[in-house]
Each structure stands twice: as C-alpha cells, then as structure tokens.
# Entry
Amino acid sequence: MFRKALINILLNNPMSIKELALLLDEHPKDIEDDLQHLQQSLRNLPYQMLIEPACCNKCDFLFQSDKLHKPGRCPQCHGTWISEPLISIEEDEANESCA
# Structure
C-alpha cells in the first residue's frame, strides 16, 4: 500500500529522496529501497518513473540518471556542492490503451 501512495505523491511532482523522507517521516534509505521496488512494479502499470540526475553545481557535471541518491563528490572537479536527483512519476503514454 505504501508504494501506491508514492505514485500519488510523485505523480507530476518531482521530489528528492530527502524531501520524500521528511514528508513521510521515514529514513531516506527506506525510501530509496521502496523507490527501487516501485520502479520495477511500474513496468506493469501505466506509469513511468523519471529521474532528473544529480548535477555538480560547481562544474555542471551530470551524473548517471539511474542513481536515486545524491553522490558524495564530483568525479570531475572533486567538489561536494551537488544537487540531489529529482524523482517523479508520469503516465506512460505508450502503455495507454486506445479507447
């Protein structure tokens, strides 16, 4: 039931894991685990998870979009001023049926 609530929270509303953890009063690691499971479950639902990747605010290095958590250090400039990835859910137009 909790993962279905995540769909409603993230539907067209990008949030970081830290923001979700504060909103739901859960530990960020638990939220990350639930999001990973939800990502698998969405394959069977008419939704898709979108991840806006983390970005170094010093040199604009863009991290991989499959990472849900904030990296600790930039591999390019070694800076630590990094924006968190934003996760959202959108309806998957490819899976919608033609009515």
